[in-house]
């Protein structure tokens, strides 16, 4: 869409910087030539909601555009502002009312997104966009184009994921233990998520998410001790061969190899073990049993049931 090729094609973050009083232009939005733009076009969902790039919604692009369009119209009521969108998502307290206010101020919303932008000899940016609402092709010539880009996980998220032993969603964000019952907790005990590391969020949702994570952490710390799962795995070091099958299969990294009588044997870290039983089923030496569900106990239950 001309970013990096044409100087007056910028991102929403760059426009935010220009609008800031501490920015390079003292809070005045200017084009590359140092003039106030008389016409600005916003293009939504650049890199978002696209199966060829990021399929998810960035959650902040629509409201960021509305705010930036408002600032431009407030500074220059005669400025022409266009918003090319797939659809406007304004779910939030007061968001829909703000959207309607922008329409009343003269911001034009076009239900469609362009595929290519050209720069004319006079420096104007020109592109065609098909308006799905009216069914007509529209040609726009503007002084500045603003691309609202999406949100992606941090580049080193996989490194952190391996370090903390937490799960990732298909999109690459950290995955919660349960979307409804444990929305801020990781499957690994004692790790909580807050903000956009979990999924794209706006400021209000991030604050609420962080408050929930802090409350969970305080609840854990205020007890002064950690409740341990009673039904954990137990290793018989006399039988264990140290093959390391269990260490690789444990989803909670609750098993480590320790020295035992001059040999390396598996040992369960009770505070990390969640009692899933994966290691019990995988152990080729039958050296691991679940507390409360030992082989003798299960066989005794079968005998009692069958009258054996």
What would you note in describing this structure?
With 308 residues, this protein is of the alpha/beta class. The protein has 3 domains: 9-149, 3-Layer(bba) Sandwich (FAD/NAD(P)-binding domain); 157-222, no CATH class; 233-302, Alpha-Beta Plaits (2-Layer Sandwich). Helix content is 27%, strand content 20%. The protein contains 8 helices and 12 strands. The protein has helices spanning 12-19, 61-75, 95-104, 157-164, 203-222, 245-249, 278-282, 295-306; strands at residues 9-11, 39-46, 80-85, 108-111, 118-119, 125-131, 136-142, 144-149, 233-235, 255-260, 263-268, 288-290. Strands 1-8-2-3-4 form a 5-stranded parallel beta sheet. A 3-stranded antiparallel beta sheet has the order 5-6-7, with no helix packed on it. Strands 9-12 form a two-stranded antiparallel sheet. β10 (255-260) and β11 (263-268) form a beta hairpin. α1 runs parallel beside α2 and α2 (61-75) runs parallel beside α3.
Features of this protein?
alpha/beta; 3 domains; 308 residues; 5-stranded parallel beta sheet; Alpha-Beta Plaits; elongated
């Amino acid at each position: 869409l001309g970013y990096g090729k044409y100087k007056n094609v910028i991102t929403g973050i760059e426009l935010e910087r220009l609008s800031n009083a501490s920015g390079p232009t003292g809070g005045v939005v200017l084009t590359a030539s140092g003039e106030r733009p008389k016409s600005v076009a916003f293009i939504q969902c650049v890199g978002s909601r696209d199966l060829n790039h990021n399929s998810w919604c960035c959650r902040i692009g629509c409201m960021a555009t509305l705010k930036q369009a408002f600032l431009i119209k407030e500074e220059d009521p005669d400025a022409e502002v266009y918003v090319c969108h797939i659809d406007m998502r304004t779910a939030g307290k007061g968001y829909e009312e703000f959207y309607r206010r922008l329409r009343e101020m003269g911001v034009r919303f076009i239900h469609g997104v362009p595929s290519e932008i050209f720069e004319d000899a006079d420096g104007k940016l020109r592109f065609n966009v098909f308006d799905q609402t009216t069914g007509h092709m529209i040609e726009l010539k503007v002084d500045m184009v603003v691309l609202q880009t999406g949100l992606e996980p941090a580049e080193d998220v996989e490194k952190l994921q391996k370090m903390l032993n937490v799960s990732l969603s298909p999109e690459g964000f950290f995955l919660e233990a349960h979307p409804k019952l444990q929305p801020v907790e990781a499957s690994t005990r004692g790790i909580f998520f807050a903000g956009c590391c979990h999924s794209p969020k706006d400021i209000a949702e991030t604050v609420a998410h962080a408050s929930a994570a802090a409350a969970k952490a305080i609840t854990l710390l205020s007890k002064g001790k950690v409740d341990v799962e009673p039904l954990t795995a137990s290793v018989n070091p006399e039988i264990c061969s140290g093959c390391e099958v269990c260490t690789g299969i444990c989803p909670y990294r609750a098993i480590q190899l320790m020295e035992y009588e001059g040999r390396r044997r598996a040992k369960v870290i009770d505070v990390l073990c969640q009692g899933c039983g994966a290691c019990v089923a995988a152990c080729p030496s039958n050296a691991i049993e679940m507390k409360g569900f030992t082989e003798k106990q299960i066989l005794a239950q079968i005998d009692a049931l069958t009258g054996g």
